[in-house]
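Hi V.,

You were right to ask for the full record rather than a summary. Here it is.
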Amino acid sequence: MANYDIERAMQMAMQKGPMRVLLILGIIALLLLFSKPWVQVGAGERGVVLNFGAVQDYVLGEGLHFRIPVVQTVVPMDVRVQKSVTSAAAASSDLQDVSSDVALNYHIIPDKANVVYQTIGIEFKNRIIDPAVQEVVKAVTARYTAEELITKRPAVSEAMRTTLAERLMAYNIAVDAFSIVGFSFSKIFMEAIEAKQTAEQLALKARRDLERIKIEAEQKITAATAEAESLRIQREVISPDLIDLRRIEANLRAIEKWNGVLPQVTGAGAVPFIGLGDPTRR
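Predicted structure:
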């Protein structure tokens, strides 16, 4: 009887053992599922690792990573190129009010995403980008006159881009592109610019008309000179022998055209005469 009880107890223990193991494994799986011991860093992002809120000195790249539940938190940071359009009011060196619209393309340096998060946070555009753009636009605009801002626009844009790149690099933010969308000036200044442009256009037209008249006069003088030279050469070539030759040629042409009939004339002894007169006067 005692042996039977022992065997039965052993069988019951063996039956309950696998169930306990499965139960324990199920509980562990649920704990892992809810605690999420892994993290996925998306394309164009970097993961900033926090141990109980303390920023670590390494950055997670794109892909799937494991983390210690409860202890570690991963904050995603976008490191792709971002665009910012800012309006800035400034004054030129000749004290003209200037309103500028500028566009900036920038990105966080991927390997420094943890430093940016630690020193600035995720609101770096409002805290760093916009104030830096405002300050740089004002500083560079003050170096040029209002007219130079229009005529030297590429140089102004490059000066702003270089200055802004140096300023933002200190915060581990790189400038990819910078462009001036537009300048706006006061109404009085714009009217003055239009009046100046109109005067310059009229002056240019007057100079072109003067050049045209001068060229036409020179052409007429050249043509008259050439004609006079041609007449002079013709006079030098004409000689008494040439005149006699022309007279003989004219008489021969008259003989060729004569039909052999004498003209009807009145008066005794009237006969036709050929070759009378100077053929050059006919």
